Write the structure tokens for this entry.
Amino acid sequence: MPISKTNELYTLIRSLSKAEKRSFRLYAERIQSSEKMLYMNLFDIMDKQKVLDEKEIKSKLENVTTSAFSNAKRHLYEQILVSLRLVNKSKKPNISVRELIDFAYLLYGKGLYMQALKILEKAKKLSTTHQFDFNLQNILEIEKMIHSRYITRSQSDHLDNIIQDSKVTNITISNRIELSNLRLILHKFYVEKGHIHNAAGEKKIKAFFAKNMPKLDLKKLGHMEQIHLYQSYVWCHYILYDFENCFTYALKWVEVLQENEVLKSRDVNLFLRGYHYMLTSAFYQRDLHRHSNYLQELESYRKKSYPSFNENSKIISFLYVHQARLNDHILNGTYKEAVLIIPKTLKRLTRYSSKLDEHKIMLFYYKIAWIFLANGQASQAMKYLNQIINMSKNSLRSDIQVYARLMFLIAHYELENFTFIKSLVDNYGSFIDKLEIKNQSQIQFLQFFREVYNAPLLDRKTIMKKHLKVLRLLRSDTFEKWGFVYLDSIQWMESKISKRKIKSY
């Protein structure tokens, strides 16, 4: 049923470009009815509103009943989507394929099954070119249905080809489903838990991955199957902190798309996402050369292709490029320059806030907080750390939630708010204790704040040196060392002891 909620209709209207609004008006002009007059009046009123005001809408519609208002919203929402479908039909081959399938069904319903088969042949060629495997299987099943019910005089080898194509496509789809399921489960684990923290976690992920990896003939995999396979490896290695292999498979993913321009243009977001994991892996390896080179490549592609991006691709490209820009400054230690580009990033975050999940916003706030802290602006850092700590979904990336709290303590230390540190340490200690997964570096760093908040001024450096020694030992541990990727407490302590600014990561 079409949507009738006012805010969702308003959001859809606000998302339309000028060209899409013009096309909708032209489309609507073809319909002459009292119902059309009502929903077009509704469209005009909502289009002019800078902020949604339902009372104003109802008053301008003049005595419209609740039922009529609800029906008008549903009808308007549906007609906008129909118009968008018509506008994008020539730009989106997947829409064209589905339309051809619909045409074939209509022709078949009229008994014009030979015409239906011709239409399906066009749809099949388009699906094959763009690797729409799920649509292709649907087309093949319709073809088999028609050939089994009518004497179509098709040659025997043509029917054999349909059967063989159906078998191959079925294997392809099965591979894609199994791989996408594996990838999604790994993604879910990461969003909820973050990276692995101990040998038991590593063993669990590796065993799960091996058990759920489908048996594949690598030589026969299509491009999309290859990408799904590489994505699964990326997620597995990412969770395991194996950033070298993560980078390797992300690069393979990108190379498949670079070799297939049709596939790349069909799914720009998939291409951008591959670059994102290459850059993220390079960042966590602290490989400045590799990070800067691939960021330059991504920036170049984005600049050249941006005019053809849809709204979703613009948002995705913003997320990945702006995050990589901040990371590049962190790797270079150019925090002063990073602070200058933050306002532009925040402006975009505000613009896209209704279309971003908390996880993505949280990661930006975390990086921004670290940049301000490293630049000697602890009070500014606290502003963004507070927003992370107060986010509604505390289960989301529990590891980042912990590191945000520890960074918050650093900010209070920088501002010499020692009276606040005592109550915060107790509160954060309870938060960490409740977590299923924690590491010793977090506990050790928290212990430092327990000891230092009421220590005499002259003893603070001694206490810091004591804990710094323990943290350095922890950093040599296979699993503990990765805690310092997200919060380099050692570098901060060293900067305080030597009375210098925080350097690059």
Remarks:
- The chain is about 75% helix and 0% strand.
- The radius of gyration is 28 Å.
- The CA atoms of residues 326 and 341 lie 8 Å apart.
- Residues 156-193 form the longest helix (38 residues).
